[in-house]
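ugh finaly. both done.
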Amino acid sequence: LLAVWCTDKNECDISKCSLGRCVRDVDLKLKSGKFTFRSSNPGVVPAPPIVKNYLGIENLTKQQFNILQSEEPFLWISGPAGAGKTVILLAKIIQLVNS
């Protein structure tokens, strides 16, 4: 995430800056690697080893999994914030590097 601090100092006081707090909170959630919880959701499948090993993500939606398995040279991936577009992009890049 990119954030611009609008202060007279070269840092942000997290306790006063809502943008800083937001960036910190999102960063913690991303680092946890728990995007999709499996439980009893039939639309969720276990992530392939490349996603688990490199990104630490345990589960994907079926749509994410299908995109990851696709061999199409060009893919148009759209979705709302938090849908996992970046995760799939990173996994595709790792696949290309490893091939």
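ok and the 2nd:
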Amino acid sequence: MVNKALFLAFLIVFALTKWNEPIDLYQEPLHTPKDFETFQLKDMYTDPSTGITHILFLPSVPSAIMYWQVDSDRKVLSKHEFRDEQLFGYFSGRIIGAGNGKDFYATVIGLRDPSYEDQFFTESHDGGKTWTTLARVPREDMEDLRDRNGDSLLVLPESGRILIFYQIRGKPCETTPENDKLAYVTRPPGSNIFTKEKIIAEFPKYHQQMPTVTATYTVYNGKSMVHVFWGNKNSSSQPVFHMSTGDNGATWNGPKVISGSDLYIGEFMITATSNPKISSSLIGTYAVVPPNKLKLIHSKDNGATFEKMECSQRRQIVFPKYYRMNAMEICGTTQKPKLFMLSQTQESWVEYAIWDVNTMTAQRLPNPFDDVIKAVGVKLTCYNKGNQIIVTGLVPVQLDDGKLHMLIAQDTIDPVSYTHLR
């Protein structure tokens, strides 16, 4: 555990950097060492219209998925519990907003009995102050939902259409295993009912580890285009796939394999990243692989073709051990998009870097969590605010007071020069 006096001393040194001082949002007593490891940050979304950050987390003794709302001054505005009385365990949560400061959507995956999981949906239309009762998502196959990656929740701001993507893992068989499947449900604009599950791809079972499914969208020629990527962690053979649709799912392009075999040695993480305000067609999947490399597979033509780039620098982000140890988002200008990355190392320290998407060069920067914290997971969001980029980092840490602390801090960046601003 980290000495608390050392942590406080670091804040003095940290005042010389451009991050603001981290604020302790949440404290939780740790009764056993395992409690620290079981605490999980599930999702984090910062609304660009208000600067309010929406956080989902699972306490070390989980009785519900916790929702907290934090303003741009990092003050807690409201709290809520996503809970269903028929569930006695919770595994995953996702939250996303429509970008208007008012409409927010979340999903929760929980355990109904030892062999049966359920997935629920809830929404808020008053900025997260109140939420609807959890409603079951109409998935056909509710087995094997305990994957820590969960689903991928997407809302199209132009129409309000909601999509939930997920991977159905094929059942084992003594002769020929069932194929894995990619599926989704959608709620059309103006409706309160999700459509029946639609399977859009089948592919051979590659590995029994947790799948990664993540979706994003671009605005292309005046209309939204949905992109979904999926792959598998801890596999030495499975590629990453990409599919897209520009007609609300009536037809799909793909699946197309966009990775190479050199990408998958050991554990890795995939995240689909898009910012329509930066570019109408810049989408990508970013995979961190050993030994200490960041690989980028991105498209500048709305998914028609993909380029592969690699950054391998001497002092780079240390290769993460688990999915939750990485957080990445793109912000900036069309000409100079940047990938902001907060990463937890294998030694449980936290590192912060900014990657140039065009050149794949990285700049490692000091951060308020650097070198003094025993961390358990990280989250990061960024958004453009006038002539500034606001980066928010959230890290649960263990100090020597026997408690878990959830710290939040912000960085302010110039979007043209990428110098730090106070």
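summary for the 2nd one i guess: The CA atoms of residues 236 and 264 lie 5 Å apart.
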